[in-house]
Each structure stands twice: as structure tokens, then as C-alpha cells.
Specification:
Length: 494
């Protein structure tokens, strides 16, 4: 490939050391580099900028030196994909200012992975949108918009107005290929370099109105209601009840609502109602499932005081309606999640820009290794043990006495319940070296697998065949910031 730019980056801080363009035959040469380990990137217009031998977020660094062969590298670039289309309304008129949301389905089968929003844009005055520089994969598209001419009346409040039925309309959230049913959304499969078109037609329908009771809490405050619309587990709209109306009448009206599935949080104690709205209605304040409040304390496994602020995230594990993610902040070790629906969640912790490993959660006297939390329809108090473990485990992956580049290296805790939160992965470099960062204290098995990148490494029933050939590793609080393995790790074939 000619005229591609190949750059050498310092592995420690990704600073560009040198760069060069490829010739007419795609060949490149970067000379007189000091002996060291470097990241190698390549870029060209119309192609995705990539790292050498890239797999997910991992790649192989190039190690230079007198005894290293770096003269036969083959760097493969992938053409980027483009998705474009037009959003139109009734009569084929373009819809200006529509929000177009792009989601990607997970490429693997990791239970912790879910369909996630990867991009968003707004249509222009011709109703057109475009997403470029996309990776190959399976995507889903949703459009959120409001008819420009819509007018919604209100039956409550000091300025109650009669709605004009012809103008009291809304666009339901619409998925490609022009369906209002999330489950019927058509996947868009993009291959490397493909150019796809996904047009979406919106149809205005009569808007709905909800009347919701907003009782006072014991402290005198208003139990405000919130109506949420989620798309593939991501909240895309959220409307809170009017405060003035709540104070005056004890209820509120939400108007301009399109038919569809919603989640309503209402009442005191709060209840979560899954609504499939087909008509205007007055919501019964007693319906819905009790929403749990999850409170707790955060502690370090070292016994030291927890950081002043830690960002916590609950990710939904089971496939149920409603938000797939909740966030909270632990202030001086104390945290609270409101309105948590029953089910299984994974808990993640970040302090500043550093992820903290969730070692275990404790409820009452029952301790569970790892970061999976089961929430029921009652308050839950947790003690969450996290680790600031910063040990870097370094070693070499070899087969028959020779170094192996590009192997998947995974450090798995002895307790399978902690695999999601404590496992660490890397890819072996050109000299077979690897480094596993921020390892928490514990007992592990280290496994290196050639051509293992499509392997479901988080599944014990699949990894069982590789564990006997792995290397036992014990990390303690006294291991320090660097731990070099005394022997090489044998690379196994998938």
C-alpha cells in the first residue's frame, strides 16, 4: 500500500519518535532507532489508523536491538466503513435536526458486554446524516425526533390549554428499517471498506398524555416522577414531572409522549413501572416493582483509607427492560444507588483515571469474590472491597524455546467468580515479552494461547483445558510495583 504513514511511538507515553511514508510497493524503513520497545502505527486516508497486529485494544510492540529481527514486518490496514442515509417524515419530507443514534452489537459473547452506543449525529436540512471511520461489525440505528409543527396542550397547571388534536402529535423512536419495535430493529452489517445506506421514515402519530400522582415524602419533599425512554439499554430521553404542578395538585401531567415502551419511576418508596403505552392514561400509584436503594461502604484491601472520591458504575448483566447502566460517586467511602431494579449487575470502580479492582462484595456475613452483585426488591447494603493493586507482572511467551509474538496472554484468578474483575490480558510483543498491569494481590494462573483472540477466555468450561499448562503466579501486597517471572510461559495452541 503506497503513501501510508508509518509512525514509531514511545511505548511509555505514546510520543512520536519517527515517521515515514511507504513507497509505491508499500515498503517502509525506519532506521537508527535505539534498542527499545516501540508501538508501531500506520494510517492512510480512507483506512482506519491501527496498531501493529491489533486485536481488540491490544497490539504487539516492536522490540529493536542487535539480536532482534525487525526486517520482515507485515502491517495490515483495514479500510474504514461508512454508513449514511436520509431521515424523512410523512409525505417524504426531510426531517431536519433529528438525532440519529448508532449502536454496535458486541463482537464476542462476554456476558459483561452489551449493545452500546458508539456515535450520534444530527440530520441536516436535507434530512441527511453520515457516520464515517467505522470498524467492521454489526450495528443498529435509532432516530429520535419531534415534528417541527407539534403543539401539545395541558389539562393541568395554572396555564391549562386545550390541545389541537391535529397538531398534538409525536414521532415514536424509530429503528432501521423504519420500525418502532426495538426487538424488530434490522441489524446493519458493515464489512471493511463497505459503504452502506440506511434510510429511515418517521410517521407522526397522536401524542399521549400521562397523569401521575406525586405524593409528599415523610420529610415534606415531593416524590417527583421520571419517565425514561431507553434504546438498547441506553437512556435517550428522560422527562421529570413539573414541580409547580406537584406542589399545587399532588399530581402532574406529562404530554407530547409518543407511543412505545417506557420506564416510569414514581411514588414513595419509589416503584419502577414498565409501560407499553398505546393510549393516554392515569398511572396507578400502586403498580410497578419496588426499586431498591443500594448503599454501602468502600474499603481498600490494604487497610488504608479509601480515596475521597471514587466513581462507581453498575452495568446490567441480565437482559431486562430499562437502563443498562447506573452511576454513583463514593464520597469518603460512602455511596448510594437510587432506583435499582432487581437483577444481576456488575460493579466497577474508578479513582481519577485509574481503575480499581473490585475484589469482593459483602452482604451481612456473606462475602462474594469479584464484582457481580445480585439486587432484590428490598434495600441492599454492601461492603465493597477494592484494590489499588499496581503490580506489573512481566514475562516472556515461548514455544519450543523460541519467542512467540501476537499470543493472547491472560492472568486468571484462582476463584472463577473474580475473573471478570481481576483478570488481566496482554498481547506478546515481537520478542515474546508481555506486561500485565495493575494486578491485585491474589493467586492466579497465567496462560498464553496462540491464535486465541476469538476465544471466550472468561468461560471456565472453555479455559479448563488450558489451565493445567499454565504458570502459577502469586501476587502479594509485598510484591512491589514490578514482578518479573523467573521462567518463560509456554504458549499453547488453540
Amino acid at each position: 500500500m503506497r503513501r501510508a504513514t508509518v509512525a514509531v511511538l514511545a511505548e511509555s507515553n505514546s510520543r512520536t519518535i519517527a515517521s515515514v511514508g511507504s513507497d509505491s510497493e508499500g515498503r517502509f524503513s525506519l532506521e537508527r532507532l535505539p534498542a527499545a520497545s516501540y508501538q508501531l502505527t500506520a494510517s492512510k486516508r480512507g483506512f482506519r489508523t491501527g496498531f501493529f497486529d491489533e486485536h481488540d485494544e491490544f497490539s504487539s510492540a516492536i522490540v529493536t536491538g542487535a539480536d532482534q529481527d525487525t526486517t520482515h514486518l507485515v502491517f495490515r490496514l483495514t479500510p474504514n466503513a461508512v454508513l449514511r442515509g436520509v431521515v424523512s417524515g410523512d409525505g417524504g419530507d426531510p426531517v431536519d435536526g433529528a438525532r440519529v443514534l448508532l449502536f454496535q452489537r458486541p463482537q464476542h459473547h462476554d456476558p459483561g458486554e452489551r449493545t452500546t452506543q458508539v456515535d450520534a449525529t444530527v440530520t441536516d436540512d436535507a434530512g441527511a446524516y453520515e457516520f464515517s471511520n467505522l470498524a467492521a461489525g454489526e450495528y443498529l440505528l435509532a432516530v429520535v425526533a419531534e415534528p417541527w409543527y407539534a403543539q401539545h396542550g395541558s389539562e393541568n397547571g395554572p396555564q391549562a390549554t386545550k390541545a389541537n388534536t391535529e397538531l398534538d402529535v409525536a414521532y415514536p423512536v424509530t429503528y432501521f428499517d423504519s420500525t418502532n419495535d426495538e426487538a424488530a430493529a434490522a441489524p446493519i452489517v458493515l464489512t471493511a471498506g463497505s459503504r452502506a445506506e440506511a434510510n429511515v421514515n418517521l410517521h407522526a402519530v397522536p401524542a399521549l398524555h400521562l397523569s401521575i400522582a406525586t405524593p409528599r415524602k415523610q420529610d415534606g419533599s415531593i416524590a417527583r416522577a421520571e419517565l425514561q425512554k431507553t434504546v438498547f439499554g441506553t437512556v435517550v430521553t428522560a422527562e421529570s414531572a413539573g414541580f409547580i404542578d406537584s406542589m399545587r395538585t399532588g399530581k402532574v401531567e406529562m404530554n407530547g409522549i409518543a407511543p412505545g415502551r417506557y420506564q416510569l419511576v414514581q411514588g414513595d418508596p419509589p416503584r419502577v413501572v414498565d409501560l407499553d403505552l398505546l393510549a393516554s392514561l392515569q398511572v396507578d400509584p400502586n403498580v410497578g416493582s419496588p426499586a431498591a436503594v443500594v448503599t454501602g461502604t468502600l474499603q481498600l484491601d490494604s487497610g488504608l483509607a479509601a480515596p475521597d472520591e471514587v466513581n462507581l458504575t453498575f452495568d446490567r448483566l441480565d437482559n431486562v427492560p430499562g437502563p443498562g447502566q447506573l452511576v454513583a460517586v463514593a464520597h469518603k467511602g460512602r455511596f448510594k444507588f437510587d432506583n435499582v431494579t432487581p437483577g444481576s449487575w456488575t460493579l466497577w470502580a474508578v479513582s481519577g483515571d485509574k481503575a480499581l479492582s473490585v475484589v469482593a462484595t459483602t452482604t451481612g456475613r456473606a462475602q462474594r469474590a469479584g464484582n457481580i452483585v445480585t439486587v432484590r426488591d428490598q434495600p441492599l447494603n454492601l461492603v465493597v472491597t477494592v484494590s489499588q493493586g499496581a503490580t506489573r507482572v512481566e514475562g516472556f511467551a515461548t514455544k519450543a524455546g523460541k519467542s512467540v509474538a501476537g499470543a493472547m496472554v491472560v492472568l486468571l484468578p484462582k476463584d472463577t467468580g473474580a475473573w471478570q474483575s481481576l483478570a488481566r490480558r496482554d498481547q506478546s510483543n515481537s520478542d515474546g515479552s508481555f506486561a500485565l498491569r495493575d494486578v491485585a494481590p491474589g493467586q492466579y494462573t497465567l496462560v498464553a494461547i496462540q491464535d486465541g483472540w476469538s476465544l471466550d477466555w472468561w468461560r471456565p468450561e472453555l479455559m479448563g483445558r488450558y489451565l493445567p499448562g499454565g504458570t502459577a503466579v502469586t501476587v502479594t501486597g509485598k510484591s512491589g510495583s514490578l514482578m518479573r517471572l523467573p521462567a518463560t510461559v509456554a504458549v499453547q495452541m488453540r
